[in-house]
Amino acid sequence: METSIRNRLEQEQETNQMARIDPIDFTTTNGCQMIFRNALPKEGKSIQQFIRQSYDESPYLATRSDEFVTTTRRVSSWIESHLESPGKLMIVAEKGKSLVGLLDFSNSRKQRLRHVGEFGLSVRQDWQGLGIGCGLLSTLIDWSGRSSVIEKIELQVFVENQRAIALYRSFGFETEGIRRQAVKYVDQDTDQSADPNYTDIMMMGK
Questions:
Q1: φ, ψ for residue 205 (rounded to 5)?
Q2: What is the phi-psi region of residue 160: left when phi exceeds 0, alpha when psi lies from -120 to 50, beta otherwise?
Q3: Cβ within 8 Å of residue 130, ≥6 positions away
Q4: Which one, of 166, 28, 39, 47, lies nearest residue 90 by Cα?
Q5: What pTM does this model have?
Q6: What is the C-alpha separation between 35 and 25, in angstroms, rounded?
Q7: pLDDT in tens, 105-155
Q8: Which residues, in sequence order, are bridge partners of residue 26?
Q9: How confident is the model at residue 192 (pLDDT cuts 50, 70, 90)?
Q10: With 0-12 CB in 10 A as exposed, 13-18 as middle and 19+ as buried, what is 64?
């Protein structure tokens, strides 16, 4: 009985450790050194600011910055949930004391779907094109390959974001479907009688 309990506790501890990675030294294509590591709950405020900045900078995200209404405490709790679950991972790219990239991955809580997860990836605009996104995605794929939970990785991407689509395809992701007119651009300063501008979302998996 004691041996069985001990083995179960050891297995649970090993599984929980899968939500974490050892810090990784990464070199960008222009020779800058940085670290990839787990996001920490104490970084709630800086990650909150990073996400809001990403919404401001990118036209390829469904959420607008003015819609990102949350508290630092909630962001910290969200980060902590990624450290505690074997089916979640949140990693940052850190240069000095600045966050320049973020990847978050989550699986489903449902038993029949928990082997599948979806990720989001953002790199600060002034650090794009230097291989950071590639490095973060490679880290996720390596982690999932060691996971006893995750079997499939999914994502959604605007069809106009050809740079991101090319990156995902280079890692073996395949198109699994298209959500037609899934996004409707709305500008409150424009004439609402004008023809709306829509875009499609591509669903990919590996």
A1: -150, 160
A2: alpha
A3: 28, 29, 30, 32
A4: 39
A5: 0.88
A6: 5
A7: 999 999 999 999 999 999 999 999 999 999 999 999 999 999 999 999 999
A8: 34
A9: low
A10: exposed
